[in-house]
Design a protein that fits this description.
The protein is of the alpha+beta class. It contains 4 helices and 11 strands; from the N terminus they run ααββββαβββββαββ. Among the domains are: about 35 residues; about 60 residues, OB fold (Dihydrolipoamide Acetyltransferase, E2P), CATH 2.40.50.
């Protein structure tokens, strides 16, 4: 078999594996009665992992790579950068083991206005009839409290996500 035909066989095998993986995710989602990945895992397909540079998709707290490995994204970076579920990130792992994240593919965003609430030791913003988790780092950075009006960002094509990024806040006067 020539190298050219071997390459074609490998390409076909990869396409078949990708199709099988997509089918398995769909079946699992149907069995669980939910969307298996809310679009995050499917976006990791085809992202590169070369040496100490890894590409992945932000899920609200972590970066998921194409193999499903999770890398914790520092909350202060996610908050400051206003990362939204589905954003594509590049992770560079330094020789000393430190992580450097960079946003390389932001998703389109939709802004919603809601109210900050504190429930079950978590901060959430209720907007558009849905409750979105927000990072504690955003709450402390903006100095917001339950009851404050908050503008959040979610993916434009998928509002049914758990996490939102805080864009801005109107802080209620004390008293």
């Amino acid at each position: 078999m020539t190298d050219k035909s071997k390459i074609e066989v490998v390409k076909q095998m990869l396409e078949s594996a990708s199709a099988n993986l997509a089918s398995a995710k769909q079946i699992l989602g149907e069995l669980l009665g939910t969307s298996f990945d809310d679009g995050v895992i499917s976006k990791t397909t085809g992202l590169s992992s070369r040496g100490n540079i890894i590409e992945g998709v932000f899920d609200g707290q972590h970066m998921l790579d194409g193999d499903g490995k999770k890398y914790p994204v520092p909350a202060n970076y996610a908050s400051k950068s206003k990362l939204v579920v589905g954003d594509v990130l590049k992770l560079t792992i330094q020789d000393d083991g430190s992580f450097i994240f960079k946003q390389i593919g932001p998703v389109e965003r939709k802004k919603l206005i809601g109210t900050l609430v504190h429930e079950n030791d978590e901060y959430k913003v209720v907007a558009g009839g849905k409750s979105y988790s927000v990072l504690m780092a955003s709450v402390t950075y903006f100095k917001i409290s339950p009851g404050d009006q908050v503008t959040i960002m979610v993916p434009k094509d998928n509002e049914n996500v758990e996490w939102a990024a805080v864009e801005s806040a109107i802080i209620q006067p004390e008293g």
